[in-house]
Design a protein that fits this description.
The chain is of the alpha+beta class. Helices cover about 35% and strands about 10% of the residues. It folds into two domains: about 110 residues, Beta-grasp domain (Ubiquitin-like (UB roll), Roll); about 130 residues, Fumarate Reductase Iron-sulfur Protein, Chain B, domain 2 (Orthogonal Bundle), CATH 1.10.1060. A hairpin with a 2-residue loop joins strand 6 and strand 7. The chain is elongated and about 65 Å long. The relative contact order is 0.14.
Length: about 250
């Protein structure tokens, strides 16, 4: 396939940035999207130009680092996949592909397609943990009975990889789906009860301080989430927040 790429180029956080056109030829439909960008960068380096900076690590849909906004969609036109799992067979010969970084106040652009998502880390540090008594009286986790329905829902919430697609897809740049997944994976388990009140209050507070918007229930986050995190988690977090506020 021969493609025209329109890629966001930005030298640093203070640069204004702009879309730059590139042509790339002989793209195999079996290539992943990131492999296609690798080929482009090889061409740029060979020609003495600066390669396009983009995040990647595992390339197996696990780490969430490869987040790109492709043709107006987080992670591109496929569903249930991250950018590294997107293959060029989803595009046609002669297509023009727009490639941008995730856009959100809380995700400032570092360079080109790379954004700073450390705001997610700070939210998790605010409460995404459980206390463990390591004094020698620790109970084996496998010995704690847990309702299967709760265990399944906690596991589903824990599949969130923190890629930020929910934020990029939301018209308000809300992080509610991400935060609710992190709250839910502990709220549903007995191990998470100790910090239940502080956890939801602290994480929501940190989310607001980072500059994320609020949720208006349009559901775009769930649609674009590569792990299919359910909006049910937002409802659960709202319930946990209300209970914690009343207790506080």
């Amino acid at each position: 396939m021969n493609l025209k790429l329109k890629i966001w180029r930005q030298k640093n956080a203070n640069d204004k940035g702009k879309m730059v056109d590139y042509n790339i030829n002989d793209v195999s439909p079996d290539m992943s999207f990131l492999e296609m960008l690798d080929v482009l960068n090889e061409q740029l380096i060979t020609g003495g130009d600066e390669p396009v900076a983009f995040d990647h690590d595992c390339r197996e849909g696990i780490c969430g680092m490869c987040s790109l906004y492709i043709n107006g969609e987080a992670h591109g036109p496929d569903r249930g996949v991250t950018t590294c799992q997107l293959h060029m067979r989803k595009f046609k010969d002669g297509d023009t592909i727009y490639i941008e970084p995730f856009r959100a106040k809380a995700f400032p652009v570092i360079k080109d397609l790379v954004v700073d998502r450390s705001s997610f880390d700070r939210i998790q540090l605010a409460g995404g943990f459980i206390s463990v008594n390591t004094s020698g009286n620790t109970q084996d986790a496998n010995a704690i009975p847990i309702n299967k329905d709760s265990a399944d829902k906690a596991f589903d919430a824990a599949t969130c990889i923190g890629c930020g697609a929910c934020v990029a897809s939301c018209k308000n740049s809300s992080a509610m789906l991400f935060v609710s997944a992190k709250v839910s994976q502990y709220a549903l388990l007995p191990q998470g009860e100790v910090e239940a009140v502080d956890r939801v209050l602290n994480m929501v507070k940190q989310m607001d301080e980072e500059g994320f918007g609020n949720c208006t229930n349009t559901g775009a986050c769930e649609v674009e989430c590569p792990k299919g995190i359910s909006l049910e988690n937002i409802a659960r977090m709202n319930s946990e927040f209300l209970k914690a506020s009343l207790k506080g």
